Amino acid sequence: ILGNFFELKIEYLINKALFCVFQNFLETMSAVISFASIDTWKVLTNTQNENDPNPSSQLLLSVENFNTRLVLQNDTLNIKEENLELRAVRIGHQNNNSSINVTFANFPIKEYANLSADISISSENFEDKPNATVVAIAYPTWIDILPNTTTFSGNFLINGLVTTITLNVKNPVNINLTFSPRNRTLDLNTAMCAFWDFSGNGAWNNTGCKREIIGENIRCNCEHLTSFSMLMSPDLIDDPALGYITIIGVA
Predict the structure, then answer these.
(1) Within 10 A of 82 (CB to CB), how many other CB atoms are there?
(2) Where does 198-243 show beta strands of DSSP type E?
(3) Over pLDDT 90: what percentage of the chain?
(4) Which DSSP symbol is given to 200?
(5) Phi, psi of 174 (to 5 degrees)
(6) Is the pLDDT of residue 132 over 90?
(7) In this structure, which long-range contacts are made by residues 5-10, counting pairs with CB atoms below 8 Å and at least 24 apart in sequence?
(8) Predicted TM-score of the model (pTM)
(9) Whole-angstrom Cα distance, residue 70 to residue 92?
(10) What is the pLDDT of residues 36-49, one digit of tens each?
(11) How many angstroms separate the CA atoms of 8 and 193, rounded?
């Protein structure tokens, strides 16, 4: 009995130490991606060698890798730093039939106050996966730090909250994300749901993601977990049908 007690105590201390490291990592991360650092990130991106990975892409990858190593002491964890917010949920035997629903909104920096993201993962994704841990992080400043580079053609800007969602077990996952546009003057019909592809220098990739317009927001359905956002084009759509609608409306 005493041996089991010491084993549990050691495991508890290790998990507590890992949690402290994780929390310190998030504090450092929040400082590194502060609003004041955006210009520095842009300089780093513009001066990088052509064949080198984008520095912001490398940092984002380190966050994803770190998230998969998070060990929760309780079933849920909420951490809110100045420039990011984390929500984590452990799927146990008692709640493996529950869906994951997370909302990020009401960010304190006025430049990002209208950003929001609703994340939903159906309980079907967690069948026979007890002790799976879902970690979601939202970082509003990433919208101005990550490049607008895409693997698809067209002129696009990041126009939604950047969120990272990870699962600590290898399992195909279907996820729904609903984004509010930062710039509401852009045409919703140009919206593209995309994830950050770490291949090469890094770029936004829309493979496996579908888009749906829900009122003034964009809902994305994607077949995997990683870092997501919603991109929109500042260019007008040259669509005769839209022109006819406008003419009829004016008439």
Answers:
(1) 15
(2) 203-205, 209-214, 217-222, 227-232
(3) 55
(4) T
(5) -105, 130
(6) no
(7) none
(8) 0.84
(9) 15
(10) 999 999 998 888 77
(11) 44
